[in-house]
Each structure stands twice: as C-alpha cells, then as structure tokens.
C-alpha cells in the first residue's frame, strides 16, 4: 500500500507540528524528504561515520542522519540499532553551554554507538524544542528572571514543546530502519515515534550528571515534562 502523504498545506508547517497533532496522523504517514547529499566523515569518537542530508520538498533547513559504524549492522533484518533523535542545540552542542544537557547527550550518543558497533543519530533542525535560536535566547532571559523552561516558552506564546516526530520517522523509514532502540529520557519521543509507525523495541536511558548550572533545568524536565531522569 502506498504511504499516505501529509497534505502540503499542513496548517503549522510540517516540521513544527506539535506532538499532539503528529499523534493524530496515521502510523504510515510520511512527509516528503529528499536525500540530497552524503559523505564519509570520520569522527573523533567514531572513525567509521557517514552523514546523510535530507531536505524537505518545501525547502527549509536540512535534517541530518549520522550513521555510525557498520552500515550492514544498521539495516540488518530484524535488528534494532541504537538510535538517538537529537534536536539541534547551537548553545549546548557547539559551544558547550552549561544551561542544558545537549552537548554531553550528543557526544555520549556517538560514543555509545561506536562502542555498540553501529547506530544512527538523527540531528534535527528543531532548535529550542522547535521555537528557534532567537526565541530560545529570549526564553533564557525570562529564565534568568525566574521563569522555568516551560513557563518561559508559554510567556513567549509557544507551547512547552513545538517539535514533531514525523520527520524523524520518515528519515528512519527512508534509511531502511523501521525498528530501533531509542536513546532518550523522554517518553513522549517513544510514543511519538511509535505513533508515526516506528517500532521502538527498547528505550535506553541517556542521563548525564547535573553540572551545577543546569540542575534546575533538569529538575523541571523531570517534574513538568515527565522526563525519566531520576
Ligand atoms: N525552548 C527551549 N528550548 C531549550 C531549552 N533548553 C534546551 N532547549 C532545547 O531543547 C532541545 C533538547 O530537548 P530536551 O528537552 O533537552 O530533551 P529531549 O530531546 O526532549 O529528550 P532527550 O531525548 O531525553 O534528550 C534542543 O533543541 C535545545 O535547544 C530552553 O530552556 N528552552
Ligand atoms: Zn541544549
């Protein structure tokens, strides 16, 4: 049966569909993504790695898949490779910001995949849980004035989490990986990917110790977002 396509004129734009709306799509729903480039990129922690770039039909920013290790190990029939669905975080991933836990999660995921022999890291253009870098910086200013990460988003007129999981599910399907073990502390990610037709064979906790700056941020994720951090 051909895969259902999300209507081109989805009201919020394909990549900003909040989780609740994605859950309303049938499990076979897909968005149109084109594989536009790929190259071998040896990494410090994973000498065997390839980056595959996907671009949406309606333009926009590229989403990347970093394939670690043996490609056969990734798509082996019945296998469930270690997978990380990582939302872009300029401050944490690139600069090593202490405000969040993204940097250790990103590097930790690649190192674990290399140890495991193979894995796939989806690096999604969903900065600031989907509100973008400029708004995330505004949210940080509000947090410095006393709001927590969730209320800061709301004060800016956004939901707590503006990300969707359809793009990640579509990338995995196009890579021939319908079944995964997911590195995450976020139960919504597991449910969201499952709702989009990906079989999550297991969740692997992906916790890193608080650093003295992000303690309240991590406590808020556990208390208000339901992240499994304790
Ligand atoms: N809006 C907003 N986004 C943030 C903030 N801190 C980090 N982020 C973004 O949050 C995203 C990472 O999401 P997290 O909530 O840390 O974790 P998760 O992806 O839901 O769950 P895990 O898989 O367990 O890491 C990245 O896009 C970051 O840029 C913040 O205070 N406000
Ligand atoms: Zn971050």
Beta strand count? 7
Report the biggest beta sheet as strand number plus sense, adding barrel if it closes: 7 strands, mixed
CATH C-level label: Alpha Beta
Structural domains: how many: 1
Architecture in CATH?
A: 3-Layer(aba) Sandwich
Terminal residue distance: 43 Å
H and E string: HEEEHEHHEHHHEHEH
The neighbouring-strand order within the major sheet is 1-2-3-5-4-6-7
* Binned strand content: 15-25%
* Bound ligand species: guanosine-5'-triphosphate, zinc ion
CATH homologous superfamily descriptor: GTP cyclohydrolase II
* Shape assignment: globular
| Nearest-integer average pLDDT | 87
EC number: 3.5.4.25
Enzyme class: hydrolase
GO molecular function: GTP cyclohydrolase II activity
Family: Belongs to the GTP cyclohydrolase II family.
Compact overview of the structure:
The chain is an alpha/beta fold and 230 residues long.
Task: Describe this protein's structure.
The chain has 230 residues and is of the alpha/beta class. The protein has a single domain, classed as 3-Layer(aba) Sandwich (Rossmann fold). 33% of the residues lie in helices and 22% in strands. It contains 9 helices and 7 strands, in the order αβββαβααβαααβαβα. It has a 7-stranded mixed sheet with strand order 1-2-3-5-4-6-7, sandwiched between helices. A hairpin with an 8-residue loop joins β1 and β2. The longest helix is centred in the middle third of the chain and has 15 residues. The N terminus is likely disordered. The structure holds guanosine-5'-triphosphate and zinc ion (ZN). The site of guanosine-5'-triphosphate has 22 residues, from α4, α5 and α6.
